[in-house]
Amino acid sequence: MKPKILIIGAGGQIGTVLVESLVKRYGTGAVIASDLKELQTPCASIQLDVLDANKIAQTIEQHQITQIYHLAAILSAKGEQNPIRTWNINMEGLLNVLEAGRTFNLDKIFYPSSIAVFGKATPKVNTPQDAPLVPETVYGISKEAGENWCNYYYKRYGLDVRSLRYPGLIGYQSLAGGGTTDYAVDIFHYAVKNKDYTCFLNKDTRLPMMYMSDAVRATIELMETDKSNIKIRTSYNVSGMSFSPEEIYNEIKKHLPNFNIDYKADYREEIARSWVESINDSQARKDWNWKEQYDLEKMVADMIKHLS
Ligand code: NAD
Ligand code: AKB
């Protein structure tokens, strides 16, 4: 049966690209994009607050929704400015979606987790799927709890919730907002305008990252794989690449030799230091054949081509 998809939080960095991809794949009529803000999308769109459980229910009934991609959240850096509000939006939002999924017997739900679930107790290099999670931001705490709620709804109610622990995402189509990995998007917008960039992380702070086209493909591949392939019901590690600000700067400089960077670390450096450097995603590769297509070199070339 053809899916009817509701995307919640569709106006953000990932949603902007995911909407286009889902519309291309399933057709304009198969996708409803929603966000707090008004959207301009190639499919129907509505304003929807994920904290409004009644409106989620109405929307599911009215549009005969069979799947939800729940993207709405407050990210790591912005989350620290108001921890309780962040917890409420991230957790109540997810619980509203899971309850709607259970009540309306939806086919599938997608929940994005994050490398923010890791903490200083986690092995930093080639971090395994079942690594200890002791997150230090409210965002990370909410994502870790979220993963466990997804697992609970699967085990208790059989709700088919699928999830990825995205690394920092980089794309030319949209700007990043409120995250610790945002520098890796911002840097390109300065570089192509011949402006110097001041980075808010130290030059050697290495983090796991992924190109947006890989992230969207991973999401759709996970959602389309046969249910029997999914062995992880908390959230899958997925890996794309791993680099430091200095390494991405050096790669950009190969294309734009006059580009300059300096470093002024702020509170986001501490957040980044509590995360890991690289991810072991062998479980995702084994279960549903995940493989990234972009490394640092290929990603930088593609970003500059599109933004120039
Ligand atoms: P974003 O901040 O760019 O977009 C989030 C969207 O949610 C925004 O358009 C915002 O208006 C909307 N929103 C906020 N509160 C809402 C509410 N109460 N009701 C409805 N909509 C609301 O975030 P993103 O980068 O697109 O991330 C999407 C999801 O992926 C998030 O759950 C995030 O935690 C996760 N994720 C993102 C990254 C990344 O690097 N971008 C990495 C790991 C995980
Ligand atoms: C953030 O930096 O908060 C996000 C994430 C890795 O979850 N990009």
Give the tags:
UDP-galactose 4-epimerase, domain 1, 308 residues, binds nicotinamide-adenine-dinucleotide, 3-stranded mixed β-sheet, single chain, Rossmann fold, 7-stranded parallel β-sheet, alpha/beta, binds 2-amino-3-ketobutyric acid
SSE diagram, text form:
Blueprint: E1 5-8, H1 13-26, E2 31-35, E3 44-47, H2 53-63, E4 67-70, H3 76-79, H4 83-103, E5 108-114, H5 138-157, E6 161-166, E7 168-170, H6 183-192, E8 197-199, E9 207-211, H7 212-224, E10 236-237, E11 241-243, H8 245-255, E12 261-263, H9 267-274, H10 282-288, H11 296-307
Parallel strand pairs: 1-2, 1-4, 2-3, 4-5, 5-6, 6-10, 7-9, 8-12
Antiparallel strand pairs: 9-11
Helix pairs in contact: 1-7, 2-4, 4-5, 6-8, 8-11
The protein binds nicotinamide-adenine-dinucleotide and 2-amino-3-ketobutyric acid (AKB).
Q: Number of DSSP strands?
A: 12
The helix/strand series, from N terminus to C terminus, equals EHEEHEHHEHEEHEEHEEHEHHH
Estimate the global geometry from the Cα principal axes: globular
| Percent of sequence in beta strands | 15-25%
The CATH architecture of the largest domain comes to: 3-Layer(aba) Sandwich
Short description:
With 308 residues, the chain is an alpha/beta fold. Helices cover 43% and strands 16% of the residues. The protein contains eleven helices and twelve strands.
Q: What does this molecule look like?
A:
The structure is a single chain. The mean pLDDT is 98. It is built from 11 helices and 12 strands. The chain has helices at 13-26, 53-63, 76-79, 83-103, 138-157, 183-192, 212-224, 245-255, 267-274, 282-288, 296-307; strands at residues 5-8, 31-35, 44-47, 67-70, 108-114, 161-166, 168-170, 197-199, 207-211, 236-237, 241-243, 261-263. α6 (183-192) packs parallel to α8. The protein is α/β, with parallel strands linked by helices and 308 residues long. It is globular. Helix content is 43%, strand content 16%. A 7-stranded parallel beta sheet has the order 3-2-1-4-5-6-10, with helices on both faces. It has a 3-stranded mixed beta sheet with strand order 7-9-11. The chain folds into 2 domains: 5-168 and 210-237, NAD(P)-binding Rossmann-like Domain (Rossmann fold, 3-Layer(aba) Sandwich), CATH 3.40.50.720; 171-208 and 241-277 and 294-307, UDP-galactose 4-epimerase, domain 1 (Alpha-Beta Complex), CATH 3.90.25. It binds nicotinamide-adenine-dinucleotide and 2-amino-3-ketobutyric acid (AKB). 2-amino-3-ketobutyric acid (AKB) binds at residues 75-76, 114-116, 139, 168, 179-181. 2-amino-3-ketobutyric acid binds at residues 75-76, 114-116, 139, 168, 179-181.
